[in-house]
């Protein structure tokens, strides 16, 4: 496998170079383009016209812009459209959208005809900094998040920060959640940069937003290169906050709770758990919470999707997480800001429940 970072290209406008970039990876010019309804409306015509000018033949697929599109029923429908359009192994698939389109399109590409190449063209901050990189592709099952999927590395990740100009504020915060995660798990200097330039980054001001995008993409690519199939415990650190987050998303039935929002709440819980178990110093706990206090949620969301939940039911829901072993949850914890590890031993249920209570108390206080 090549260095993951070598196939990540950050350029504006990247779409005008897709033909030449595909050629460098031995990809042809027959492409299935997957959009969601919003990215089709916003960027579809420009992308398709540019690709046609570069000699591509395209087939267009569009899915509803929501998490529930990551489903077996949507995948089944798309397979049918591809078969009817005579898509064969000489084709590739480009995912033009956020993490939903990327995960779903990657899943289709990994399974259709036993696998065709996939190119990621991320258009949300979350997709540019996380989901388009590293080849985890999946659909959800009603019993758990991302339970059905593959490791299918993209041939190319084409990042054009100009796509961010139309992104609603809620999606910017969603993306920033995973960006902040990299500061927590891998890079204290990056954490400090995010704390110092938070207001510029939220307003998507340059050079801060490009710095945040490229640093995030690099950290993720580096982790993936060292532990592609999540076997050594290193890649699992990208799951910081996610054991809680996946439980919350499942309880919300994947509706009205963005993945990034669930991860922000999950990271608050994980910070408290790291502290309660004696790994994270009190000063660092408070520094972490201070940065997370910048996040904004739609009115009532934290109340409905977290504060009002029964904590035992949440822990039960978290048991759908793939890191568990023999029904015992596994957590990614911090021993300092800038370093995470997968805690391999069982953690007493009481500590997890207390961390949830701590996080609830913190959100209550913040209201
Ligand atoms: N595979 C991975 O490694 C990985 C990593 C993180 C998250 N994920 C997955 O990613 C998904 C979340 O992705 P997301 O947060 O990008 O959500 P999303 O794909 O649902 O996109 C969010 C919203 O933004 C709209 N949108 C996209 N680009 C836009 C643009 N440029 N301007 C205006 N609107 C735009 C979309 O239509 C959608 O309504 C979750 O399913 C999560 O599990 C996967
Ligand atoms: O790429 C990874 O590895 C990650 O854990 C990135 C996460 O941000 C992402 O949400 C991922 O989809 C979670 O993967 P899962 O294996 O826990 O479903
Ligand atoms: Zn995530």
Walk me through what this model shows.
- With 367 residues, this protein is α/β, with parallel strands linked by helices.
- It folds into 2 domains: 157 residues, Rossmann fold (3-Layer(aba) Sandwich), CATH 3.40.50; 198 residues, Up-down Bundle (Dehydroquinate synthase-like, alpha domain).
- Helices cover 49% and strands 16% of the residues.
- It contains 15 helices and 10 strands.
- The chain has a 6-stranded parallel sheet, with helices on both faces. A two-stranded antiparallel ribbon has the order 6-7.
- The longest helix is centred in the middle third of the chain and has 19 residues.
- 49% of the residues are buried.
- The structure holds nicotinamide-adenine-dinucleotide, ligand LNCXM5UN and zinc ion (ZN).
Give a quick summary of the entry.
Catalyzes the conversion of 3-deoxy-D-arabino-heptulosonate 7-phosphate (DAHP) to dehydroquinate (DHQ). The chain is of the alpha/beta class.
